[in-house]
Design a protein that fits this description.
The structure is a homotetramer of 183-residue chains. With 183 residues, chain A is an alpha/beta fold. Chain A starts with a strand and ends in a 13-residue tail after the last strand. Helices cover 40% and strands 20% of the residues of chain A. Chain A has one domain: Rossmann fold (3-Layer(aba) Sandwich). In chain A, strands 3-2-1-4-5-6 form a 6-stranded parallel β-sheet. The interface between A and B is medium-sized, with 23 and 23 residues.
Chain lengths: 183, 183, 183, 183
């Protein structure tokens, strides 16, 4: 165990909403980096926590959300990063991964102090999660290659906000992220 | 729709824990009243919201929790009150139905102002949920026949605390609970 | 009473921190608009709620924070918008006006559904407060002339994020903000 | 510094409310024990945190609350335990010391893992605070001699609930509470 966890944000998606056309190419580009981070987290025995919107469906959790996303318009963007048997899973109802969810409690139980964020949307849920993590004194890293955006200018501004105002580290190629395993 | 919702607390249970022996006879006695409340809520088009512990299993939601409870020691206490297709479902990690859950948000979205509580355990989760609802200015009703306890003396004290200090109404036989349907 | 409240963010400031030099000219420019909004809120009997950082001083509330800001480097930026006898006052410890504060509860008690935001810093606390209000389904308006920034580019991006992703209304000159008084 | 903090609940009180007659004799009896705990906390360099109701007065903090309590019906119950220069101070709007307050955040910043509770009312705010602390995995101790009640039977039940269901330790005469100072 390290004290670092990977948080995979909103990668279960039917891509049937209004902004999907703007979003999909960016997701396609980020996908290999999200996969790489998941692999690195697994190798370091770091928790992988999927936090995903419930799309207003208050009975559809985990299995149903995965099935629904796989039955959507872009299963090829879902299947490679779908939660596996070892993944933890937190459902959210609103934008931030912390609002109305047990994420803060779960991280405390896991002894996590450092979050690596990836997923979508850079200038929305990723930004908001970085903020809510920073407010709670978690260390935050974001891999700019592993996040997908709708609006490229706002995404750039969001990354700069995370770095300047939320003390986030922007991960560069070759950076070691998940550190050495704890005893 | 009324502005009242029925909250069914922790009725998905494997009854394999330490306190189960003390709890099971009380659940057996409360079961018909829980069923009656569910039926009354359905007739009045009031939301039925199951809020249930995840027992530390951060991937097991809804379907898996139901299956696990039905495979436990007392399926006859689970099956009659298991969530149906119309039930809403909120997973909790700790004692209170409000802590680290989207319940407050969901109730706001539904326009609910009055909670009817039933389930288990009277002197624990039911008491804590009454408190957290009262703090947020929800009206609270509890049906003493539809809640199950481990310790009868503490359960009596809990009901008295709810009535005296949390402005809860203790439902009596014949009381109309879910009111007239809203237009 | 209207269902609109004015939220004045972090205007009690000693301006002795690192970013003050970049911030002060922008505050000076925003000051008349903040005053105008306070006047309009008063005329409409809308609540004026100051939400202010405690700067890590866990005993210094209200009077002491006002005194400390008036004794700082720029009392001329504090005195014109200091809380008066009718102002409500909420202390915060971190960036967002909602995190670890009773603001959500207070707004509920006041029957407020629409927040008008002003103060500092546009690309930080104002942005975060707009987000946390939007997540809770409050309507949000921001007056771009009544908010002060450190980084003009990030401030522009922040205003665009509020408008595009948080359904915020950017108030324009001549807009009626506080509406008609409620009965 | 130890990892233990003393939380003094609602001891700033005008005693002008309805339940005051039932409460005052119990406060009078608890007062010396509250003073003793404050002294012991000071000696061990443990933080003393007063958490107090604002009585719906959204501008009256710290100094004003102290002044108002000292001007109430029983200044002799306030003065001996009023916050001193080293005390931390958190204002609450509702029953629990955690709801809508920065207490959780403050405890995290102080590195506190163990709370010693004293003050009033045993079967209300003290009970609720024990619950909210236990839910967040703080260790909880309560000194039965240093808490004051309105209803003696419910107070007994509350202490038993804390011990049985919230893993709280009931402090006995002679127990060492604040431990050895940390390096």
């Amino acid at each position: 165990m390290t004290d670092t966890a990977l948080v995979v944000i909103d990668m279960l998606n039917t891509y049937e909403h209004e902004d999907a056309d703007a979003l999909v190419p960016s997701v396609r580009e980020a996908l290999p980096s999200v996969r790489r981070l998941i692999g690195q987290a697994r190798s370091a025995s770091a928790p992988v926590i999927h936090v995903n919107d419930n799309f207003g469906r208050w009975r559809s959790h985990h299995g149903e959300l995965v099935a629904s996303a796989l039955a959507g318009r872009h299963p090829e963007l879902v299947e490679p990063v779908a939660p596996d048997e070892d993944s933890l899973f937190v459902v959210k109802a609103r934008h931030s991964t912390f609002y109305g969810t047990p994420l803060d409690y779960l991280l405390g139980q896991l002894g996590v102090r450092h979050l690596v964020l990836c997923g979508q949307v850079t200038e929305q849920c990723v930004l908001y999660s970085a903020l809510d993590a920073h407010i709670r004194h978690f260390d935050v890293s974001v891999d700019p290659r592993a996040v997908a955006h709708i609006d490229p200018e706002l995404a750039d501004a969001a990354l700069r906000m995370m770095e300047t105002n939320m003390s986030a580290v922007l991960i560069r190629p070759g950076d070691s992220v998940f550190g050495t395993a704890r005893a």
